[in-house]
Structure formats: C-alpha cells, structure tokens
Amino acid sequence: MSAHANSPADRAGSLWLPFLISIGIAVFLITLMPTVMFWDRDEAFYARAAVEMLQSGNWILPTYNDAVFPDKPPLIYWLMMFFMSIFGQNELGARFASAPATAASAFLIFLIASRLFDRRAGLWSMLVFASSTLTIYLGITAMLDAVLVCFICLALWAFVAIMQEREGFWGKAAIFLVAMSLSLLTKGPVGPSIIVPAVAITWFFSRRGERPPFWQMVVLAASTFIGVGIFLLWAVPANNMSHGEMLQTGFGEHVIHRALNPMQSHGAPGLLGYLAFLPAYIPTLFIGFMPATLFLPAALSAIVRKPAAEGTPSPRLFLLSWIVPGFVMFSLAATKLPHYIEPMIPAFAIAAGGVIAGRLSAGTTSLRIGRWLYILQIAGLAAALLAVVALAPTLLLKIALVVIAVGCIGFAFRISLLHRLSDYEQAMRTALVSVVLLMESMFLLVIPVLERDIKLSKPVAELLRKDFKPGTPVFDADYLEPSLVFYLGWPVDSPIRDVPGDQAGRMAFLTSPGESALVATREQYELLKALDHADRLVELGSFTAWNTNVSGRLQTIVVARLKP
Q1: Is the CB of residue 541 less than 8 Å from the CB of residue 497?
Q2: Residue 495 and residue 236: Cα distance in Å, rounded?
Q3: Quick check: 540 and 467 in contact, CB under 8 A?
C-alpha cells in the first residue's frame, strides 16, 4: 500500500509531543536510579564487568572479579563504560543507559502504533508501555533488557514501515540491519528470536496484494545473517581469548542449558516442577503490566477475537506474531525470570493503547475482568505496604507507608469508577499520575530507609575502603556478593578470593604472610577464629540484615583484619 493523504506518516502527526513525552520518561527514570543500591545480582555482575573492562582497556573479553565473564555479549558493558566515564563508577553510571533506551522504545512504540492505528493510539501505547511496573523496573536498573527492547522495537518499526510504504526500502532495510546487529550484541539470540517470527509470520499471512515483494523479505533475511556476521566479529576473538569459554559457557550454558534446565533456582526441577512453572508468565504479565492491567484482558480479547482496524499489516496479525512465539518460547524454557517477557510488553502496550483510544473493540466482560484484576492488585499492594509498617524503623516511615497505602486505595477507587463509566482515557490519565507519585514516594522516602536492613554489601565495602588500602588482599568466607566486588572497587588485578573450605586450606590462609581483609558470615568467622592460634584475626565491625540475595535470610557479616 503506497503512501497517500492519510498515510501512516500523516496519521503520526507532529513528533514534538511524543518526543517531549519520551524526554519526560527518561527524566522520571533517572530521578529514581541513584536513590537505591543495586537490586539484582545481575546488576552488580554487569556493572563490575564494565568497570574491569574500563580499568584494563580490554573491550573484547568481559571479566568479573578478574575471571572470564562469559554470560552476555559486550554492548551493555560498552554503554556502561561510556556513562561511568561521565557519572562515575556508581549506581547512576551503571544504570544510566536503561533510561534513554526505555524512552527511545516508548517513542518507537508511538511510531509503530500510529502506523497500525492512529496518533491517539500511538500516544496511549507509549504511555502504557512506559508506566508498566516491569518496564519501570528494567528502566532504572543496570540490566540489559531495556536496551534489547529498544533494538527490537527499532527493527519492527522498520518492518512495519516497509509493509506500508514502497518508497525508501533500502534505508529501512539498513535500519533493520543495524537494529538486528545491536540486538545480537546486547543479548545474543534473544532479539532475533522475537524479531524473525514477527516479520516472517506477518508477511506470510498478510494478503498477497498488500505485502511487499518476496525479494524484500529475502533482503531482510540477508540482513539477519549479516547481523550474525557482525556479532561474530566480536564473538570469535572473544572466544579465542577465553580459550573457548565464551562459546562453551556463554552459549552452551546460558542459552542451551538454561532453556533445558532451571538455573539458580529460577524454576523447579523434575517434570512436575517444569509443568507447574509452565504458566508462570501469565501472572507475571498481569503484575508486570500494572496499572494498565485495567485494559489487558480487553486488549488480549480484541487481538485474538475481534476484527482490527484496516491497514497493512493487520494490527491483529502483527501483534499476535510479536507476542505469541516469544511468549510460548519463554514459557517452554525451564529457566524463568520475570524480565524475560519484557520484549513482548511493547506489543501488549500497543494493543492496550488501541483499546483506550477506541481503535480496538473490546467486550464489556473483558473490561470488567481487567477492572477487578486491577482492584485486587491495588488491594494486595496496599496490604503489603501496611504489613511493612510493623517493620519500619522510624515513626516517620510508618506514617509515610500508611499515607502511601491510603493514597493507592483512593486512586484505585477513582480509577475504577472512571473505568466503570467507560471514561477509559481519563482512567488511564489518573493511573499515570498515581504511578509517578507512588514510584517517587517509594524511591525517595521508603526504600532508601528499608534497604539498610535488607542489603549488606555497600556498608561492608565502605568499612573495607576505610580501613584498608586499595589492592589489599580481600578474602571471603561464605559471602561473595557481586555487589560487594562492585562497591569495593578494588583494581581489576586484586580480586576477592574464597577462603578454602577444608581445614588445611583455612590454616594456610591464617598463616599466610602480610596483611589481609576478611569478609565472612558470623558462623564462618567463629570457625576461623577457633583455628587462629596466633590471634591474627581482629574483628573490625559487623552488619546484620535480612539479606534479599539469600532468600531474605537473617545474616550477620563480619569484617576482620588478618594482621601481618
């Protein structure tokens, strides 16, 4: 279908408003980033790998704690290195790339939804995406999913533009190639596993007279293979430098083995455990899509059962081709993590945006289900906030938690009422305000206070830096958190080493020459102290917390000096 007076480009209208909204999204996320310590172990793994690449000047082979780190391709480390050179080797520098990537994804979602529907649907789609709980979490953390989603959206925007316009094919194909290459350099085969089925299924099932010629799809297929070649320009040297570990572990373990076996307790062993976790991403989607859960059942119903708006490609076909293959693939994989479904969230957001803007028809039953799911979610959130009141260490924090919980209930009442009156746009506007207020209040007032009792690594690292010179040998006994390696910030050639578990190894540690630092659980420290006949171990301090990285177990960590 050729461009005309009512072309997709015309329906998108001026780009200033979505551009300004994207800037606002980035600013909102950036304000949340430096307020809290690292959440996920992966945050610290990736951030420390970037620091070590920055220190060593080796941009090819990622390392962590001075050992090969083959988990992921290098693009996220390169981005972190760039922003750390600006903001420093801290949480903001490590996390910064996620904010502009999320904002760019939102802008691309606007462009895609505007082509599939119209400008209003595009605006709502980008707002639904940016306000979803899972998107906000990934948009403020030092993870690679926000960057990956940006490149997936870029590739699929180029494809939709090719489907709708015959002019400018080669430029769009070049964009598709760049996006495919960068997605591979971000998270390996995950990007193509979303992009390729969406492109192939949409083109194959589109009406013959309304799809681009076959040779153009051949060009896109060739672009995919060229993207793999660009990926190999990094992968082959990195694999050679690691003596095969990048291929064996990075692909063999973290792709193949992860798909076939649950890793790091992210799933359940055995056939019964596998079957029990098969539907895990259904509740994950409904929680992670909040607050637009209000429209999620209606959106799913609309794209599955209802006729979509006219256009090429069919919005219904394209969105299903984007959602279903990836959702099935990740559901069938044995290892499951909530952020695995983030690459499909833009498609769900576009469907929800179509419902809000009235471009997708939704039944009253599905809308009612969405409203009740949202009410249950807010009720659960408010109950959780009130439960934390008992654990809050200060009266001011207790009051803040109660106020936030009551505010959530009040917003939910107003939003559900507007939704029930079919004023969907006003309901979503109110929901957006509630998300901003909730996130800012939680990240500025609540979480920084609570995390002192659930995270240990930063105060431990601060004590080590205070009492020891950089590069002093540091040993751990049953406590080697990735965030400790990052926050300590020792030179790359001074890794934290484990104290051996056998008695001979422990005696060798206790009799080793020179000064060393020890980080150990209280239990391990007492065992070592009992073997310390020369009385070289001196306790410098201890920290106790409900450590979230060990399933919330109460842990006391001791920092000690091994005297020369």
Answers
A1: no
A2: 26
A3: yes
